[in-house]
């Protein structure tokens, strides 16, 4: 298992920002307790207040993948995606060994 942090950044545009904020408030406590999750933070655009940035830091990509499989199996991932007006832009970052 890697000890380099994995940072997952999602740029999101929900169809109903207020409803999406309530949904995130419900699900993020479980995300923060997931195995390998170091942090999970949300940010709202200053100018485009319907844009969200979700930044998660994981111990290893395997932890993040296991978390996503769990969210998919519970149906929460489908609900999450259903809130979006356009597809999430996902970027996965890892520690630069240099």
Tell the overall outline: globular
Judging by the overall fold, what is the CATH architecture? 2-Layer Sandwich
Order of helical and strand elements: EHEEHHE
Strand content: 35-45%
Describe the sheet with the most strands: 4 strands, antiparallel
CATH class: Alpha Beta
How confident overall, as mean pLDDT? Answer: 89
Count the DSSP helices. Answer: 3
Count of β-strands: 4
Q: Level of helix content?
A: 25-40%
Number of domains: 1
Which fold name corresponds to the CATH topology? Alpha-Beta Plaits
Separation, N- and C-terminal Cα atoms: 20 Å
Structural class label: alpha+beta
Please, could you describe this protein's structure?
The protein has a single domain, classed as Alpha-Beta Plaits (2-Layer Sandwich). Helix content is 39%, strand content 36%. It has three helices and four strands; from the N terminus they run βαββααβ. The protein has a four-stranded antiparallel β-sheet with strand order 2-3-1-4. The longest helix has 17 residues. The protein is globular and about 40 Å long. The protein starts with 5 loop residues before the first strand and ends with a strand.
Spell out the key features of this protein.
98 residues, alpha+beta, Alpha-Beta Plaits, 3 helices, 4 strands, 39% helix
TL;DR?
The protein is 39% helix and 36% strand.
Strand and helix layout:
Elements: E1 6-14, H1 17-33, E2 37-44, E3 52-58, H2 61-74, H3 76-82, E4 84-94
Antiparallel strand pairs: 1-3, 1-4, 2-3
């Amino acid at each position: 298992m890697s000890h380099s942090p994995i940072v997952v950044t999602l740029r999101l545009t929900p169809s109903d920002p207020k409803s999406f904020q309530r949904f995130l408030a419900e699900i993020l406590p479980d995300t923060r307790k997931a195995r390998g999750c170091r942090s999970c933070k949300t940010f709202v655009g200053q100018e485009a207040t319907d844009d969200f940035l979700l930044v998660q830091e994981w111990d290893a990509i395997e932890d993040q993948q296991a978390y996503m499989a769990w969210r998919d199996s519970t149906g929460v991932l489908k609900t999450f995606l259903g809130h979006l007006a356009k597809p999430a832009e996902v970027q996965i970052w890892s520690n630069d060994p240099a």
